Hints:
By secondary structure, the chain is an alpha/beta fold. It folds into two domains: about 5-150, Rossmann fold (3-Layer(aba) Sandwich), CATH 3.40.50; about 155-275, 3-Layer(aba) Sandwich (Rossmann fold), CATH 3.40.50.10490. Helices cover about 40% and strands about 15% of the residues. It has helices at about 5-10, 10-20, 45-55, 90-100, 115-120, 140-150, 155-165, 190-205, 240-245, 255-275, and strands at about 35-40, 65, 80-85, 105-110, 120-125, 180-185, 205-210, 225-230, 250. Strand 6, helix 8 and strand 7 form a beta-alpha-beta unit. Helix 7 packs parallel to helix 10. It is globular. About 50% of the residues are buried. The model has no long low-confidence stretch (mean pLDDT about 95).
Amino acid sequence: xxxxxxxxxxxxxxxxxxxxxAPRHAEALxxxxxxxxxxxxxxxxxxxxxxxxxxxxxxxxxxDAFAAxxxxxxxxxxxxxxxxxxxxxxxxxxxxxxLSGSTRTTAxxxxxxxxxMRAADDVVVLDFADERSVVQTRFATxxxxxxxxxxGLHTDAVVADARTALARPLPEGLVDCxxxxxxxxxxxxxxxxxxxxxxxxxxxxxxxxxxxxxYRHGPISVTTHGTATWMLGEAPEDLADQVRATGxxxxxxxxxxxxxLVGAQRLxxxxxxxxxxxxxxxxxxxxxxxxxx
Length: 293
């Protein structure tokens, strides 16, 4: 079993622990009414997208998401929450340094022995969800679970759905597809982006991700026999029929969208194996991006 396989299968346990620990971290996390920006790089950026929509939709306050390198320095926030598994990512550390003394910052990380521990005002460490793999799975989803629990949006049913996503077979013919599209709505757009990233990282697959309503504004034109469209969350009316009419394979997300992401992680590993690739050694990637000064 590869590192990424071992780690993605441990997610139900990690989510349960994160949800239980959420109250202990409440003072370090955004409070209701704060104007918040959530930042990250790569996978963490896509989790930031999901978390930002969840928080604002829950009526907790205006919440934006940015890639750490693209944070708008001219905007004012009550708090900036940085997601960084490694705690060493250059763009995140630079941003936290720039904000020091002017904006309250919180870092959510997996490693308590890294520079981010000194760079942020508050730190939440999920070391039980750290990973050996380059390709992120359980840390990202565990961080989002912590934030969902902090908002009162996590339930035991989410964990049960994750176990289902790990146990049931992937849809017939899915691994053999040559192109994959992931769709989301609202907070699941970030999850769709992350599902696409997993496929590109682990399996070198032709993969795209879109807001579901935008899919019909051009991208559906590439859908045909041998392609798959996977919906994370509730699909817009008639979209499934439109995809099937192209000859493409439609995958309806019937589990909690975060559990559907676990299914997409499994797909990435399965496609990598079918193509003779090692998902623990993704091409041109390292566990953390550290830029030379």
